[in-house]
Amino acid sequence: MSILSPTDRAVLWRTVVTSGSEDRGSLLRVLAREILDSVGRRLDMYGGHEDEVVDTVELLDASGLLGRDDLREAFEEADEDDEHAQAFAALLAGHLGHAADVQRLGVGARVRAARLSATWQAQVLDRPRPDRAWLTAPQVAARYGVTPQAVYKWIKAGRIQAEQTPGGSWRLPADQFDRGRADPRRLAALKSKLVAHVGDVATVSGEELADEIVGRRQP
User: Fold this and answer.
1) Contact 100, 113 (CB under 8 A)
2) What's the rounded Cα separation, in Å, for the pair 212 and 17?
3) Which of 21, 83, 155, 177 is found 20 to 30 A from 218 (Cα to Cα)?
4) Phi, then psi, of 175 in degrees rounded to 5
C-alpha cells in the first residue's frame, strides 16, 4: 500500500472532479481506493468497507458535491492524524446528508446517501475518547449529522460552548450535548425511511433540523 502525499491527493481530487465522462468512473474508483488507504487505516475500516467508500464517492459526484473545496482540503490532511481522519469522515457524513436531500438523484440513491451518512457518522462516534469531558468539532458534527463547518458557525455565533487550544483547534464540553440527545444514527435511519416514503417530496434537511435543535439550547 502506498499512501499519496497531501499534494498528490489534491491533484487526484482535482483530476477526478474535472475529468470527462469516459474516464470518470475509473477515476472515482481510484479516489475511493485512496480514501480507504489514507483514512481507513486510521479509522479501522478496511475489511468490508470497499463498496461503501465507492458508493460514497459516486453519490457525492452524482449530487454535485464532490467538487466542494472543503472536501478536497480535508482529504489533503486526512492522513495526518486521527483527528484529521475523523474530520474528513464527519465531512463526508454531512455532505451525504445533503445528498439525501437532492431530489434529482431519485429515491433509491437518496436513501443510500442517508444510510451512508450514518455509516460515516459511526466511524467518528464509535472512536474512543481519551477525555470524555470534551468533544472535537468533528465529533459534534457527527452527532448532529452536519459538516464540521456548521459546528464552527455555531461556535462563532455563541450558540454552543467551546474553547480554543493553543494549537488552534477547538474543544467543546461534552455535557452540553448529552442532555436529551437523540442517537444521530437512529435519526439518519429515520430520514432514510422518510425519503423512501415521501419519494420526491422535499424534506427538511438534516442541517436545518440540527440548527434548530442547537438554537433551542440558547438561554
Assistant:
1) yes
2) 33
3) 83
4) -70, -20
CB 34 within 8 A of CB 13: no
Coil, strand, or helix at residue 20? coil
pTM of the model: 0.77
CB 176, CB 161: distance < 8 Å: yes
pLDDT digits over 153-199, tens only? 899 888 889 998 887 888 898 888 765 455 656 666 666 676 766 65
Q: Cell numbers of 53, please? A: 467508500
- Residue 168's region, left for phi above 0, alpha for psi from -120 to 50, else beta, is left
Cell of 32: 475511493
At residue 54, the pLDDT reads 94
